[in-house]
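Field: COMPLEX_INPUT
Field: COMPONENT_COUNT = three
Field: RESIDUE_TOTAL = 1120
Field: MODE = joint
Values follow.
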Amino acid sequence: MGSISRRYFVGAAIVAATTDLTVLPLKSTEIERDPLEAFMSVSQSLTNRSSLDRTIGARLLAALQNATPDIVQALTPLAAALSNGTMDTAQEPVALKIMKAWYLGDVDKTVVTYEQALMFDVVSDVLPIRSYCGDAPGFWATNPNQS
Amino acid sequence: MADTQQADVVVVGAGVAGGLVAHQLALAGKSVIVLEAGPRVPRWQTVERFRNQIDKSDMSECYPSYPWAPAPHYSKPNDYYIQKGEIPFASEYVRIVGGTTWHWTGNTWRFLPNDFKEKSVYGVGRDWAISYDDLEPFYYMAEVELGSAGDQDYGSPRSKPYPMPPVVMPYVEKTAMDILNAYNPEFQVTSQPAARNSRPYDGRPTCCGNNNCSPICPIGAMYNGIVHIEKAERAGARVISNAVAYRIEVGPNKKVAAILYRDPKGGEHRVEGRYFVLAAHSIETPKLMLMSTSSDFPDGVGNSSGMVGRNLMDHPKTSIFFYSAQPLWPGRGPEQSSSFIGYRDGPFRATQTAKKIQSWSLNAVSAETEKIFAEGKLLKPHELDARIRDRASRFMSYNAYHEILPLPTNRTVPSKTEFDAIGIPRPEIYWGIDDYVKRGIAHTRTVFGEIAKALGGTDLKYDDSIQTSQHIVGTAIMGSDPRDSVVDGHCRSYDHENLFVAGGAVMPCVATANVTLTIAALSLRVADQLKREV
Amino acid sequence: MKRRLAFIAVAFVAVVVIGAGIIAGLALKKPSSPLSGAVINDPALVKRGEYLAIAGDCAGCHTTSNGKPFAGGLAMPIPTLGMIYTANITPDPRTGIGAWSLAEFDLAVRYGVDKSGENLYPAMPYVSYAKISDDDIKALYAYFKYAVLPVDEPTRASTISWPLNMRWPVQLWNVAFFDGERYQDKHGRNPAWNRGAYLVQGLTHCGTCHTPRGVAFQELALDETGPRYLGGSVLAGWQGYNITSDANAGIGTWTSDQLVQYLTTGNLHGVAQAAGPMGEAVQHSFSRLTNADVAAIAAYVKSVPPVSDGNAPSRQKLGAPSNVVASLRGFSFNNDTEDSARIFLGACASCHRWSGAGTPDGYYPSLFHNSTVGAANADNLAQVIIHGIRRNTVGEDISMPAFGAVLSDKEIAALVNFLTTQFGNKSASITDNEVKSLR
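Field: COMPLEX_OUTPUT
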């Protein structure tokens, strides 16, 4: 396990400086074709990650549909809004739900993923996920703030 | 009766206490049967159950409670305990082969010499029937058996060095320790002795710092009672799982003749022996004794003193949470690696409780991410990520184990009206804390404030809800006087010469430290005595 | 396996019957040592002998895990016959070799004949040790005579009963398969290569585990000029892999540096980790040799002609990360589950990660691109799961827990097959019974 990556902060700063809303290209044709496709596109855009696990995505979408049956209908307008940078406050709850699902790995207190929850990815250079070995024994004694 | 089995020694409870006794006696060539209420569950299953649970701060959800061997859960309360006291008693234990040390945090403290004579020295509580010096050789033996790692005597004099040095301290705890000791040397923050391998030991690997000691060490670098259960079996002992003891049968001359147990279907079985050891933790052991009434023993087995089930003790616990000024990154390495030992002993104990304070270095990412989302704001990923990193790197948690004295009114009693799935009474709990504890808790609160100040803490949150700590002791209390004690200095029942109690139930005080090593030492002393007699 | 054993048993009986006649006819001469006289207690000689004993890994067989150094007692199965126990080779005059002369010591080590004139089974690798030079034998003798502490413990008797415990048939085996030649430097090869060849063919006796054997359990080749030398073998339930220069079947893609690292540490990140008998060899022998000697060994081994094993893909290049966790996480299971993927996650992933990639620094190894998981024969993988690994070299004390007591034969077989399918050679598999026989 190494120290905090300087590149991480630099990269994040560049993104923050150059975009108002973090956006990855969306193809409007994909959205009509397949809810999962739409969900993955929206998710990638919201989380600013270009590759999210599809198996996890399918499970999260199914869990979200259970709780919010009309969420699929919300995906298309949300995708459009993200493309144009025109998301309004009414759409934010759905966006938040989707972000939360990916970051926490659960939907309504049902675990969908643990190891692949994005929140752990965020700190993966410093913290092992609980119940998994980090690196060679003793890694935890070093100062993680040093590059 | 479905069947009768026999052994030289019958042990009720397959945890660390029962395992150590069974192992020693099997090595000495005695036939041993160990009865365990719950099933045998391999480590890998518990690990996966932990990863499947929604709330990773719940330390018992990965140990499901079985209908025939229910155990108390509090995060998702299962109403096993019947709470009858002033405040709820929420301590948990594990009823499967291997016992509660499946989910402990591995800390192997010895008690202090004065803990054994609080009545004589401070005028409070009770004196043990033995001294620290009597137990010292068994403390060492327990440290070798469990694989305890430490680097100083922590106030408990030692005849021999630790089997191995401690696992190296995580950056967070070392940094905090240095700051805190400089801020106030009275804190006396030290490393923490633990049965956690700093090198391969006893066929078990080195700690890899997966931050999961509790509820389950995924790799066995930390000691769990299953180690001695398996050693006992290799030495010839028989462990019968899914065997719920429900009656102690006393024969002629007040000697225990048999234990009766039920299987999950309610079928009844009988185990006869020459000697019997109750090692079923501190709620089930007194419950079994109190259930075993008869015309000769209307108050239950071994209860001429009336103290069985009474003097229930644990560590009333309070906590503080805050964000440190510097990013210290808890969650790297073992969960607990340091303690404040400066308040464990002293003249103040005449009027207010002593305590041990410790930090808890638990990965804070999921809790902090939950909090951020709970604010309800949609954030851009880079901002969300930065907040998660910032909060997770600075979240600090300290808690204190306070001593509560043995109060006969704190007790457990088998219910006369509420039963589990196979007809065995559920335990009623009467629990409250007194001013002796409350005064100590008030002092702790100021200490917590100082800790936060020393570490530049912000957003301080005190948890004064007085939790308990899973260190349940006292319910088959040891003493020199049979009129107010259940067992003598060898943990032998005053009423039945072939009945012993191995476990926390015998402890006359809970003092300020985790109790497992003391339990292990006492159990080895029981085994030592039994080897002479059986 | 059973048919092979039966065949060997029949062959053995035939050999015994015919051999009795041949020996009587040939009036076979007992070998004699070219060495004679005493050896003085010269510290430099003794120290060199200590080093050579490490190179020869005498302790590997003559010291047990809880026994005194060189007091013997390790059980060694002799195929079809039974169990022998290694000898006490401490200088105890009564129970060890304290009364042995230099010539008698030499006869045992390089000729396979003990002080009483009885043949040793070639489990004692005299077939390899024959290559050792006279000077090195003297140094070894000095070490065992003057530096090793005498231990009064009689060598344990074998379980082989009469008539199978007769030793003279070994003389016939020797006639057929033992050339007893000293190592001779090869012209046209540099000193490092020759040093490596001397060590590998002799003291470090790699061929004992790594060269395939014939019907009479003889190694098919004793040096790189023979057929299939170091081409892979099985001994005591462990596969000694093909370590020839074949790029697929052997270690042809390894650089010299990689081979040196493997020999001195037992861990070549992302490629191979030493366990079982090789782990012990690393711990007790290779990690304690000089850099020059390990480099020489590597140079020689890398020059050994390639031995192919058909189309089997390179065992260190197989497998891919697993994503079973994405399908299993959050789903509960019963205590009696038989899902090998679940066992993998619960028992293996804690160190090897849910993807099987191991930790970033390679300390806990990756399961894919892993030459043990990728082998065509799954026995070594099953062995480390059953028995764990303990490998202690300077600066590193590696421990993998044993799962033999926690998992049944069925669970281990299912787990091994899951691992080879996901991370290794898909056609490598193991049955419950095979697991049982490896315990």
